[in-house]
Specification:
Largest sheet: 6 strands, parallel
Radius of gyration: 18 Å
Strand order of the largest sheet: 6-7-8-9-10-11
Distance between the termini: 38 Å
Oligomer: single chain
Bound molecules: zinc ion
Length: 337
């Protein structure tokens, strides 16, 4: 794993070092077609995304868990087929290179399962050293290269930009990466999904940078927002136009966890009641091959389908509101604005 990660970092570094052939203006013109989202199998009309899980992790091949690749492919295909049979049409994969992304793996399991998969560019700061030495321009070029030309040595294009910050405030490296994501978003029209530390109101420091860079709030989703029980933090960001990724509901099952999954679900209902049905995503942050997470959440990518959504319905949420969150919001978000 370590050597593969090192390799991927070198690959990313090589990409950064290679001059991007096309001019920024030409590349934006090419990618600005609205209503198209790039999947691992090529471009797709956003209207065909259907029921979309907006934050999961599939494009990785955990050798230590599955041994040979064929076995891992078979396991992932089983999981994806099960999700498809339960009504999931699309999975957005938020695994950037520094979390061990294997884009060929994502392509193969998408083709074999029939599940539509959107891959990401970006970073998770698990390898901050790979960004410490790089300028905003260099990081922006890397993100744009993965969106316009392809990820690593493939022509599989990223359909979303993932960025992460680890606390409530920003390190200088995190700030540079956020600015790069903002510039790549503006240059290509591809939206941004983030990893936030919601309990420290991490979304607020992220959007400060996005706003300074002139990114529309409609192009940004703040992930892991349900980790907090501070409703004023959530409504504040939703009011400003940001989409709240409610993607950690399963975490409420962990022993000693302050905000139970039921409470997180009730907050979704309260946000709907407060008028923010158009500002919500639901997902499961399922991570293929993460055995600890699997123990906590045996339902995996179907946690919301089996638990949170039925509970929302019992709380009085209408089918059209569930559809708005799971189908209409992702379609709008991924239709380049
Ligand atoms: Zn995640």
């Amino acid at each position: 794993m370590a050597s593969r990660r090192a390799f991927l970092m070198q690959a990313a570094a090589a990409v950064v070092a290679t001059p991007v052939q096309m001019s920024r203006a030409a590349s934006s013109a090419r990618s600005a077609s609205t209503g198209i989202v790039q999947t691992v199998l090529g471009p797709l009309a956003a209207s065909k995304l259907g029921f979309t899980l907006t934050h999961e992790h599939i494009c990785r091949y955990p050798v230590r868990v599955y041994g040979d690749r064929a076995n891992a492919v078979a396991k992932a295909v089983d999981k994806l087929k099960e999700a498809r049979d339960s009504g999931v049409d699309t999975v957005v994969d938020l695994t950037p290179f520094d979390v061990g992304r294997d884009i060929r793996f994502g392509e193969e399991v998408s083709r074999k399962s029939g599940m539509q998969i959107v891959a990401c560019t970006g970073q998770h700061l698990f390898a901050p050293e790979s960004f410490n030495e790089r300028s905003i321009d260099e990081i922006t070029e890397l993100f744009i290269k993965e969106i316009e030309q392809g990820i690593e040595d493939t022509d599989i294009k990223a359909g979303v930009i993932k960025v992460a910050t680890v606390s409530g405030s920003l390190t200088p490296a995190e700030e540079r990466v956020l600015r790069s994501a903002a510039r790549a978003c503006k240059a290509t029209g591809v939206p941004i999904e983030t990893h936030t530390h919601a309990r420290e109101r991490g979304g607020e420091s992220q959007v400060e940078i996005f706003e300074a860079e002139g990114v529309s709030p409609a192009r940004v989703s703040l992930g892991h927002s349900d980790d907090t029980d501070d409703l004023s933090y959530l409504t504040g960001l939703a009011k400003r136009g940001y989409t709240l990724g409610m993607d950690h509901l399963f975490r409420g099952k962990a022993e000693g966890e302050k905000v139970s999954w039921q409470r997180r679900t009730e907050y979704v209902k309260q946000l709907i009641d407060a008028g923010f049905v158009d500002r919500l995503f639901l997902s499961n942050d399922w991570t293929f091959g993460d055995t600890e997470r699997e123990k906590l959440n045996p339902d995996g990518m179907l946690f919301n389908t089996r638990r949170s959504i039925p509970y929302l319905k019992r709380l009085g949420v209408a089918d059209r509101e569930i559809r708005a969150i799971t189908v209409d919001n992702p379609r709008r978000f991924f239709s380049r604005g």
